[in-house]
Write a structure and sequence with these properties.
By secondary structure, the chain is an alpha/beta fold. It has two domains: about 5-120, Rossmann fold, CATH 3.40.50.720; about 125-295 and about 325-345, Dihydrodipicolinate Reductase, domain 2 (2-Layer Sandwich). It is built from ten helices and 15 strands. The strands form two sheets. A nine-stranded mixed β-sheet has the order 14-13-12-11-7-10-9-8-15. A hairpin with a 4-residue loop joins strand 9 and strand 10. Helix 1 (about 15-25) packs across helix 9 and helix 5 runs antiparallel to helix 10 (about 320-340). It is globular, with a radius of gyration of 20 Å. The termini are far apart. The mean pLDDT is about 95.
Length: about 350
């Protein structure tokens, strides 16, 4: 079997804790050939610890070693690096979100088409076994036509106190860009990515700008907090379906975390986390729970494996760039709606 040579751009937490360990588990299919980071010494230390043979001096040099690259940088650099990698003949797995704007996302797709290379975005929630079960059930018509979708990605007091998460220039946004995008992508994928017609949204940063707030994920400066910590949105689709979205890093809720996609169809409904079905039959109302679900407990492994096999022409790409672009378009419209104080038509 052909071994895919993979290079990693950016060696921060997501690279060290997810992508590098996961690709190392696929040694029969993958060789991590090189690392690159603007902090060369940090990249050198990570390479030494994990026995990775090369540390590139520039990202252009890394492209020379690799068949594919994984981009793990701040959001601002996703588009530029992806396009350069594709132009250099490399397949690309880019961390979410796809880009800061829909226009950047379109440019990434155009580069992928020109190069004839895979472009995928790391929306790993699609690879969770509950998500795979929900997709199967929906595709087999169990809940009928999806009508109303509810998406919750809520954390009570978990603003990331490390890295550049609260830097708007580098990240483009906060809770919606970092966290809500995952559950939004999952919901859109489950219902077949219908085209949105109208989007309304409101963003908040109130709690994180109050001094002395409790935060479970480290400390941050409330005076320099520059992104959203709580967002609500409403999406009406051209096919008549609607989606209600709420996401937060910091909100006054009872639970530590609320994370779910709930879909009501004309024949039944489902909850993704934990996975369950509900329906009416025989004049009665039923709730059905699965006793066992196939699949991996850690979605990182099937995500990496799908990317590798897609690059080798041995599997269909699960997260397609055009679908990831739709997530970015909706996020952009939510921010625009909040700024203008009115709904936005797409």
């Amino acid at each position: 079997m052909t071994i895919l040579k993979v290079g990693i751009i950016g060696v921060g937490g997501i690279a060290q804790n997810r992508h590098i360990p996961t690709f190392l588990k696929l040694a029969d299919k993958v060789s991590i050939c090189a690392l690159y980071d603007t902090d060369f010494e940090k990249a050198r230390q990570v390479a030494a610890e994990l026995d990775i043979p090369q540390v590139a001096q520039t990202h252009e040099e890394l492209f020379e070693f690799a068949d594919a690259v994984v981009i793990c940088t701040p959001n601002k650099f996703h588009s530029e690096l992806a396009i350069e990698a594709l132009n250099a003949g490399c397949h690309v797995l880019c961390e979410k979100p796809m880009a800061l704007s829909a226009e950047e996302g379109k440019e990434m797709i155009a580069a992928s088409v020109r190069a004839g290379k895979i472009l995928s975005i790391a929306y790993h929630y699609r690879f969770m076994k509950e998500a795979i079960a929900a997709k199967k059930v929906i595709n087999e018509g169990e809940i009928g036509t999806p009508l109303v979708i509810r998406v919750q990605a809520l954390r009570r007091r978990k603003v990331p106190g490390w890295g550049v998460f609260i830097n708007k220039e580098l990240q483009g946004g906060g809770s919606l860009m970092d966290y809500g995008c995952h559950l939004l992508d999952l919901a859109l994928w489950l219902i077949g990515n219908p085209k949105p017609a109208e989007i309304s949204g409101t963003t908040y940063d109130v709690l994180s700008r109050i001094p002395g707030q409790v935060n479970q994920w480290g400390s941050f400066d409330h005076q320099t907090f520059g992104v959203d910590d709580h967002v609500s949105g409403y999406i009406r689709f051209q096919n008549g379906a609607s989606l209600l979205l709420e996401t937060s890093w910091s909100s006054n809720i009872k639970e530590d975390v609320i994370e779910n996609v709930s879909i009501s169809g004309d024949k039944g409904g489902l909850e993704v986390f934990p996975f369950s079905l509900n329906y009416a039959k025989h004049g009665m109302l039923f709730n059905s729970n699965a006793e066992w679900l196939p699949g991996e407990d850690d979605p990182s492994l099937p995500q990496a494996e799908n990317f590798v096999l897609s690059c080798l022409g041995m599997a269909e790409q699960v997260v397609k760039a055009e679908e990831a672009l739709q997530v970015t378009q909706i996020i952009e419209a939510i921010y625009e709606s909040s700024s203008k104080g009115c709904s936005v038509r797409i």
